Amino acid sequence: MTAEMERLGEPIGFSRDGEGGRRARRAVRERAAKVVADEELLDDVELMTAEAVANAVLHGSGLVTVTIATDGRVLRVEVADDGPAHADPADADPHGRRRLDHGRGLTVIDALAGEWGLDQSPGRTRLWFTVTP
After folding, report:
1. Could you identify which of 44, 52, 81, 111 might form a hypothetical disulfide with 56, taking C-beta atoms 3.0 to 4.6 angstroms apart as the criterion?
2. What count of other Cβ atoms lies within 10 Å of the Cβ of residue 71?
């Protein structure tokens, strides 16, 4: 989060199970609705959150944390986990390039987000995206 952004509620933390991801997705939609009036954009935010959470659960480690914030102009969602993305040779595409997702997750986020990024360190992976309400 940037210094100018205000969190919309406390970060949502959960273990890497299906129920935690569902709770996080619903909570992000509810919080985003405080600043986003467009139902289609809320659908997009929920979908991008679901894809980011799925990547964290599938490829990450430890606790998953979801944070949502706004500066009044932009809504930002961050999904972080306690480890780097796993580099499994089975995750490579047919040309031998590394893939961070097994499907459409990052493609969906790339298509729908205003901006997005992936920050990795040995002890943390953070995927974030923004939308403009």
Report:
1. 81
2. 15
pLDDT in tens, 14-65: 987 668 888 999 999 999 999 999 999 999 999 999 999 998 988 888 899 9
In 3D space, the residue among 77, 51, 47, 48 whose CA is nearest the CA of residue 65 turns out to be 77
Structure tokens at 88: 């499994």
Contacts of 106 (CB under 8 A, 6+ apart): 51, 55, 100, 118
DSSP per position, 52-81:
HHHHHHHH--S-EEEEEEE-SS-EEEEEEE
The whole-model pTM stands at 0.83
CA angle 19/1/112 to nearest 5° reads: 65
Q: Across the strands, what pairs with 116? A: 129
One-letter-per-residue 3-state SS of 85-133: CCCCHHHCCCCCCCCCCCCCHHHHHHHHCCEEEEEEECCEEEEEEEECC
User: How many Å apart are CA 43 and CA 62, to the nearest integer?
Assistant: 27
